[in-house]
Amino acid sequence: MSHSRILSAAFLLAVGLVACHGGSSGTVPHGPSSGTPTSAPGGGATLSPDAVATALANVQQYYVTLPHADPTADIAAVAKQMVSSGTFQTAAVTPGGITATLSDGSPALVFADSPADLGLSPLVHARRPRSASSVRLRSLSGPTSHEIAFLVNSADSVTFFPATAVAWADAFTSQGFERAGYGIDPVSVSLANIVSLGSGHPIDLLDIATHGMVVGSVAPYNLALLSDTKVNATSKAQYAADLTAHRVMYAIYLTLEETAETQPVMAFTPDFLAANLHFNPGAIVSLGACWSANPLVVGTVGATLQSVNVGRYLGWTKSVSNLDFYETQSFLYDRLLGEQSPTATHLDTFASQRVPPQRPFPLDDIETAMASETRSSPIQPPQSEPYTVSDKHFAINANQPPVGDGTASRLVITDFGGENVASPPIEYGLPSISQMAVTQEAATGGTLKISGTFPTTPGTVTITDASGTTPLTVNSWTKSAVIVGLPRDGNGSAGTVQVLTGADPTVSILSNPVPLTQWAGTVTYGENDTLSSLGGVPGGGAGSVQVTFKLTFRGDVHPTVPSIDASPVPQNLSFPQVEGNSTAAVTALTGHFTASGGTPPPATATLSLASTPDMTPQNLPLSSSTFIVGALGGQPPCNNGLPGPEGDAGNVFCPGFGFFASYVGVCAADVNDPNLCAGYETFAPTGGFGSPTLVDPGIVTFTMDPSSYAIAVSGPNTTFTRRFHGSSWPANASATGTINAPLYAPMSTAPASHNRHAASSRMR
User: Fold this and answer.
1) What is the pLDDT of residues 573-593, one digit of tens each?
2) Which domains does the chain have, with CATH numbers?
3) Which of 280, 331, 641, 662 could tie 633 with a disulfide, CB 3.0–4.6 Å?
4) pTM of the predicted structure, to 2 decimals
C-alpha cells in the first residue's frame, strides 16, 4: 500500500529542487553483473583507497563533459566509459545509478538520482535559504532507552538540507520527548554515526534522508543508500568486514555542482543498519531516498528490517520531487505531534496548519489522510495529487517498475504489525483526547470516560483547576479509552484534563488538554393544583408547591475534531446526573380546601410547609429525600441525551427532573370536621418534570449558548392530573432557572490544542 513518508528537508524551501531522481532506464549492462557485486576471480591487485577515490572522481569528471540533453543517454555513456577505461570490470545502469565493480573486484556505485545535481533541472543553481545555512547538525546525545534519529546527507548541499532535520528534531523536543527521556538526534548520515547509534540508542523512529539507488541488474536486487563517510585508508580499514560482506560499498554521486564536498564516499545497504542498530520492537523506519520502496527492492529491504524488530517501513517507488518529499513528511510529523497553529513546534514553516488547533492523531490515521488529501503547504503552491504521490514528470521514471505508474513515484508503507506488539513505540500514537463523558455521578464522586488514542503502557491522568493539578485515579486503561474517578466536588472536580505517559508531568509526554466544564445554577419547579376533593370529601380549594434545585453538573462540550483536518464539531450538552453536592428542597407549600357538605359552617383544611430538609441526588428509583436531574433521551426537540458530537436538534438537552420529598407537608383539619384530612396530616410531595417514572407534566430544556456556554432554562406551563390519596386534581407546572457562564468553558480559538511547552534552548 502507499501512504506515508519520512525525512528531512530545509527551512523554507521556496525553490523547486528535487530530492532524488532515478538514473536512466535499465539499459544493457556493460559487462557481467549480479544483484550484489562480488570480487571477480583472478582480479587485479587490491586498489588502495586513493586509487579507488581517483577512479570514482574520474567518473564524475567525465560526466561533466557530457551534453546533458538526455539523462538516459548520459548515464549509459558513463557506464560504457567506466568499462572502457579499464578501471572498472563491470558497469550496469540500474534505477538510480550505476552498479559497478572496480578492477580488483570491489563493488562500486555511481548515484545518479538527483536532477538538481545532474543539471537536469532548470533550478539546478538554486540554493538553500539563507536562514538554513547557519543551522548545523549535532553530535550524538547520550545513551537512552528510546531513540528518534534523523540522519541526513550533509555533503550534498544542493539536494539535502540539514536544517530541516534539526527543525523536525526540535518539534519532537518541544512536545516533551526529550524531557521524557527520549534521545532526539539530527546527525549526518555517516557510517560512524550509525555504528554509534547502535550502542545505547534503541531506536523507536529512524529517519534517513539521502541518495538511494537499486543495486544490481538482475535479482536479487538490493537498496543502497549514500553516506557522507569519505573513502580513505581509515574508513577502508574500519569497515573492511562490511566491504567484504557488501554491506558497505565505495560510491560517488554525479553532479554538475562540483565542490570540495564532492568526494568519493561509502554507500551502505539496509543490512548495514541491521548489523549495527538495535530497534525497539515495532520500530518505524522511513527511508527518505529515491527507489527505497521500488518493487525490485521492497521485499528484500522489508525482510531485512523485519528481521531486526522493525514494525513499519516507508519508502518511495521511484524518483521523488524534493518539495513533495519535504511536504509529505512535514504533514506526517505535524499531524502526529498535534501541535498546530498557533505553533510551538514551528512546523507551520513546512505544513499547512489548522485554526483552531487539532489534537495529535495516530500514525494509521495520518497515513490514510495522506492518501486522500491533496498537497497544500507553505513549501510550494497547492498540488492536485495526494501526499502519497510525487509526479513532476521525470522522464526516467516512466521506464522503471512499476511501469504502470508512469512518471509518478508513490509512497509505500510496509506494515509488519508493529503497532500490535506488546509495547509498541509511542510514535504510532501519542496520548490524544478526542472527547470525554461523565458516565456516572454518586454521593462519593463521579466517573469520567476519556476517549481517544493512548499508549499501550498505562500512564496517569491529571486535572488542573485554580487550586493546581490533581491526579485522578485510573480505573481502567486501553488504547482507545481511559476511565478515571472524579472528586465529588471541590479541587479536581472540574478543570483541564490531560493524559500523561508517566506519573511525573515533568518527565512525561502529555496529551492535548481538554476542559471538563462545570456549571452551577438554580432551577425552580412550581406546581399549582386545583383541589376538587380531599380524602374523598368533595369541595374546592387550591394548593401550590415549589421545589428549588441547586445544581452542579459537569461535562465535556469542547468542539471535538473527529478526524484529521476535519472542522471541529460541537458536542452535546449532556450529563447522567448532577454532582453529589447538589441539593433540592421544597421551599414553599401552601393550600386550602373547603368541604362542600357537612355541618355548617363548611369545614376548611389548610396545607402548609412544616420543614425544608434537603434532598440528595439519587438514580432511579427514588427513595424518600432524594431527587434526580439527569439524561433522558428520546424527547424532541432535544438532543439524544448522549455525550459526543451534536446531532441535528442543536445543543438542547432535556434532563428529567424528579423529586421525592420527605414528610414536609402538613394538612391541618378544621375542628368542625377533624376527618377532613383523611388521616394524612403529614405528607411527602412527589413530582417530576420530564421524568419517565414520576408524574410527567412536561419537558425542561437546557439550551447552551455556543459562545459563552451559559445555559438558558425553560419549562413551559404544562397541565396534567395530580393524584393524591384517592383524589385527582387538575394541575399545572412549570420550571425556570438561571445557569450562567460555567467554569472551564472551552476556548473558541483552541478547543483541543496541545500542551504548550517552553521552547527548547535548541529551538530556532
Assistant:
1) 999 999 999 999 999 999 999
2) 115-417 (no CATH), 429-515 (2.60.40.10), 518-739 (no CATH)
3) 641
4) 0.88
